[in-house]
Inverse folding.
């Protein structure tokens, strides 16, 4: 998704904000080396010298890595529907089966739009406002053009192979973890793990929400965000 997916939140914020398109999405050109560090470098080039970072899903991996390699740039973090590791490992159960992501990657070759819409449906599964949230995601999906299939494949590879658990204890930024109670992509156990592993983390689980709580429960999400930013100045 492009940065426009945050518009309903931005309209309600009491703080100055900017929504960034990750490389290859929306109005942001792709990058030659589609690695996590490459994404961090591209995003930092668009951002002010110091900032609070609010990031969702794949964007949360970028935020975590950014906070690790450029801590002087990141004051506080808000990680939404996030995890240090998206896929199951022998020692990591609160994640997706590898087969789920590899299947999406294979199906992109066969049916691009149908596969993307199926992925959106997985993001809202279990949400009390699933129908309305899915409508918003589908409306936004191609609002800034169609992401290239190669970019989508590269993003899926990052989800498959990235594991940032080892660096969690080094992230000194005060961090708010916002997670949907019924998240099917990132089980709440991942957020609970991060709440323990990060030196200064605060977990808020939104009842009835799935993977996109800032869309399905916008008012509650913004209230929690404002409280966090005002309390931990």
């Amino acid at each position: 998704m492009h940065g426009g997916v945050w518009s309903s939140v931005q309209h309600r914020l009491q703080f100055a904000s900017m929504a960034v398109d990750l490389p290859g999405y929306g109005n942001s050109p792709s990058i030659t080396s589609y690695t996590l560090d490459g994404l961090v470098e591209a995003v930092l080039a668009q951002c002010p010298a110091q900032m609070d970072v609010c990031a969702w899903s794949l964007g949360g991996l970028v935020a975590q890595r950014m906070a690790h390699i450029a801590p002087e740039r990141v004051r506080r973090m808000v990680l939404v529907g996030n995890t240090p590791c998206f896929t199951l490992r022998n020692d990591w159960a609160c994640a997706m089966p590898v087969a789920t992501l590899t299947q999406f990657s294979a199906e992109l070759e066969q049916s691009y739009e149908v596969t993307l819409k199926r992925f959106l449906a997985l993001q809202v599964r279990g949400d009390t406002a699933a129908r309305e949230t899915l409508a918003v995601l589908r409306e936004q999906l191609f609002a800034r053009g169609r992401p290239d299939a190669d970019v989508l494949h590269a993003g899926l590879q990052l989800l498959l192979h990235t594991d940032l658990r080892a660096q969690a204890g080094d992230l000194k930024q005060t961090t708010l973890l916002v997670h949907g109670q019924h998240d099917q992509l990132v089980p709440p156990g991942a957020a609970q793990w991060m709440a323990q592993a990060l030196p200064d983390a605060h977990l808020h689980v939104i009842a009835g929400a799935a993977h996109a709580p800032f869309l399905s429960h916008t008012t509650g999400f913004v209230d929690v965000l404002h409280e966090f930013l005002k309390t931990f100045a």
